[in-house]
Recover the amino acids of this structure.
């Protein structure tokens, strides 16, 4: 039966194929041209030869050409390829991406200062403290040039007592210097308070492409002009400013009225036909007159006060700070209320989501915990008490609870007690912390689990409670940084000590290949360090003569290269002692990279040095990838003579601080400050590379320290001077031990040695 069924299937398939072939033959005409020999015009259904339709032209004798006259010509291998000279216009990029994309800042605020002098108790300073961190730009326009400069304030002076002239001068300055950089321009008096958070939200609901003159309108019937009162401030859009900006000076000459607001509104109306309005796209500019008033419950319950964007006639700084405190607390309360509502909505909706409420994370609205993909991703908990931390790393399992860690734990305990008393009616006192655990979750933040022994008020009983806390990660914040480029010349300072001559030759070869051949903007200064004994024989037997000769050879081979060297006599070549000599030989704007000859030169790393080192702002201490001892890691393998970043080849050495980049001016200022804090200290006492790092930490400069994968160091045995401070000496020994090999490699080495000893013992 199975054979018959299979035979029927084959017969049906064969019949289907035959029927399909027969139908296709019936549908296709018996005589049809192929390829390009013929084609049919749809309109005439006329068969036309393709050769007849193509005109190939004629030869030099006038004979008609056809497709057989065209033969392919093969290019021979030895025939040179002719490059087409295409004149391509060089693309010029903008300095900032916002300029290239025409992205504008939101709000420019100008403050007309009425006082002759600005002091710390003036409302001008109050406006700066309460408004500057909300708006894009805040500029103060004064009547006189003040000799006293206040940090964090941009002050522009327009001398003169004519209010009309000063008004137009301010707007002329705004138009010429900032007219194309912002979407909105607001000018207020120095007695006007504006809560920036609410005002920026107000602007976020309005379109920016309209002609807008906004404020509290006043109509002048005789002149038929509707202008904005400057008491509460007024605002112009960028489009309107672009229209009337070219006429400010002309309007200033024609102004005759003693009311500057009227003249300003008349100028706008004349050149743009725009009037002052208080409403735009459903948004209303509200103002509140605070003259002869104090902040009481009456004002707080006033509807006009609650919805005001600008509060004018605030006569003293104290009142301005009170207003700011009130509006900040109100905004915080509204935000917390919104968070609670969102959390409630999430809980309600989660019942209908896959998994139901069981999949709801805690706290509600926070990202779910990090999911590990292997055992190496498991996040461990740190145990802590009120005095110590346990389990930070394998080399230091117990450490005292000090500094930022202590501040963190104290804040967590304070928050816990405040929250417990808030929930249970202020009945608890902290007895002691029994157990504390914390870990960092990359998705959520720092998680805490506390076992606490609590005491009850008026009761001798003690109870135990376990609480869970989360310090969530905040949003990424964009921090202002000065503009830097990758075209700054880097001067590489390389100390050379006895025993490193061969590595210096390798370093110079790499530098020639990476920098000199590519004409990179860099320079190298070798610091040949002589001990007192070596210095005595320098004239007859110079241990660095081969290195100095090779530098001369490279200078001849690469004309224009910046290669130099100096000799220094010292028994302890610390970075500070060397830089004290070097800094005097260069200009103050020189960018230094202090390193050693064991590094692999990389253009990527040099560019990062240029970008991460900012004069007067930031110094850079990269964490290098240090190679393990090749005698251990390549004992049974050929040495590749290159460093690959892997856990078996090396590690990022957090013990090293001898690689640093900084500007000469910053070094000299830091050195001066260091001498003032440590009077009488000579450079002989500054022996550790950590001293250079601590010296910059004592300044107001940003000290940027981060892992740099392009900074790779060949292995060299670290020498720990016994004359170092005890803490520095122990740290040096730890760094030297960690830099030998990984734990697994050292364990295998010990195991192999034990097996050899056991084998030798067995043979005996």
């Amino acid at each position: 039966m199975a054979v018959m069924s299979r035979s029927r299937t084959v017969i049906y398939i064969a019949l289907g194929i035959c029927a399909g072939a027969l139908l296709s033959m019936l549908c296709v005409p018996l005589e049809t041209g192929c390829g390009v020999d013929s084609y049919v015009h749809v309109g005439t259904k006329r068969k036309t030869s393709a050769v007849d339709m193509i005109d190939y032209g004629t030869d030099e004798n006038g004979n008609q050409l056809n497709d057989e006259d065209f033969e392919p010509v093969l290019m021979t291998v030895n025939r040179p390829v002719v490059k087409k000279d295409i004149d391509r216009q060089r693309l010029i990029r903008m300095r900032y991406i916002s300029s290239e994309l025409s992205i504008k800042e939101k709000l420019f605020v100008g403050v007309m200062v009425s006082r002759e002098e600005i002091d710390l108790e003036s409302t001008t300073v109050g406006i700066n403290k309460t408004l500057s961190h909300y708006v894009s730009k805040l500029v103060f326009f004064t009547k006189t040039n003040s000799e006293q400069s206040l940090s964090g304030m941009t002050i522009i002076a327009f001398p003169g007592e004519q209010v009309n002239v000063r008004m137009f001068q301010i707007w002329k300055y705004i138009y010429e210097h900032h007219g194309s950089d912002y979407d909105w321009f607001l000018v207020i008096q120095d007695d006007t308070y504006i809560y920036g958070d609410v005002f920026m939200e107000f602007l976020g609901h309005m379109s920016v492409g309209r002609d807008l003159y906004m404020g509290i309108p006043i109509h002048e019937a005789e002149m038929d002009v509707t202008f904005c009162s400057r008491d509460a401030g007024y605002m112009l859009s960028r489009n309107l400013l672009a229209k009337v900006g070219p006429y400010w000076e002309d309007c200033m000459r024609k102004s005759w009225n003693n009311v500057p607001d009227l003249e300003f509104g008349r100028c706008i109306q004349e050149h743009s036909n725009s009037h002052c309005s208080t409403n735009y796209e459903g948004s209303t500019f509200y103002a509140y007159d605070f003259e002869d008033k104090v902040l009481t419950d009456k004002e707080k319950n006033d509807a006009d006060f609650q919805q005001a964007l600008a509060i004018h006639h605030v006569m003293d700084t104290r009142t301005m700070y009170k207003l700011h405190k009130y509006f900040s607390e109100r905004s915080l309360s509204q935000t917390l209320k919104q968070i609670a509502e969102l959390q409630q909505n999430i809980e309600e909706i989660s019942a209908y989501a896959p998994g139901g409420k069981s999949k709801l994370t805690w706290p509600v609205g926070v990202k779910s915990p990090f999911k590990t993909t292997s055992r190496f991703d498991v996040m461990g908990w740190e145990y802590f008490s009120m005095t110590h931390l346990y389990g930070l790393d394998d080399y230091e399992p117990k450490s005292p609870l000090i500094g930022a860690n202590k501040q963190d734990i104290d804040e967590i305990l304070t928050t816990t007690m405040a929250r417990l008393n808030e929930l249970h009616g202020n009945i608890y006192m902290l007895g002691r912390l029994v157990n504390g655990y914390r870990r960092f979750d990359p998705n959520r933040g720092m998680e805490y689990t506390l076992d606490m022994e609590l005491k009850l008020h008026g009761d001798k009983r003690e109870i135990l409670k376990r609480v869970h806390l989360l310090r969530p990660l905040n949003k990424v914040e964009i921090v202002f940084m000065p503009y830097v480029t990758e075209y700054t010349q880097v001067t590489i300072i390389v100390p050379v000590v006895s025993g490193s001559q061969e590595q210096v030759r390798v370093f110079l070869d790499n530098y020639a290949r990476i920098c000199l051949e590519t004409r990179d903007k860099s320079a190298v200064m070798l610091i040949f360090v002589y001990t007192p004994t070596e210095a005595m024989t320098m004239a007859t037997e110079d241990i660095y003569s081969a290195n100095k000769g090779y530098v001369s050879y490279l200078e001849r081979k690469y004309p224009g290269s910046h290669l130099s060297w100096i000799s220094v006599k010292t028994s302890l070549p610390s970075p500070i002692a060397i830089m004290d000599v070097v800094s005097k030989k260069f200009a103050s704007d020189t960018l230094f990279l202090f390193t050693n000859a064991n590094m692999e030169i990389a253009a990527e790393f040099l560019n990062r040095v240029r970008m991460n080192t900012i004069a007067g702002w930031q110094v850079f201490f990269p964490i290098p990838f240090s190679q393990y001892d090749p005698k251990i890691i390549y004992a049974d393998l050929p040495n590749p003579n290159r460093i690959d970043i892997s856990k078996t080849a090396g590690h990022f050495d957090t013990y090293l601080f001898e690689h640093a980049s900084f500007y000469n001016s910053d070094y000299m200022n830091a050195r001066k400050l260091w001498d003032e804090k440590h009077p009488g200290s000579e450079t002989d006492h500054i022996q550790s590379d950590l001293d250079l790092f601590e010296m910059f930490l004592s300044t107001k400069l940003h000290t940027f320290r981060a892992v740099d994968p392009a900074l790779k160091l060949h292995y060299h045995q670290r020498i720990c001077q016994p004359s170092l401070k005890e803490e520095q000496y122990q740290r040096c020994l730890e760094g030297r031990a960690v830099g030998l090999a990984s734990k697994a490699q050292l364990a295998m080495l010990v195991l192999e040695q034990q097996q050899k000893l056991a084998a030798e013992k067995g043979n005996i």
Remarks:
- The chain is about 35% helix and 20% strand.
- The longest strand covers residues 428-441.
- Residues 1-5, 30-53 have pLDDT under 50 and may be disordered.
- Residues 535 and 569 are 7 Å apart (CA to CA).
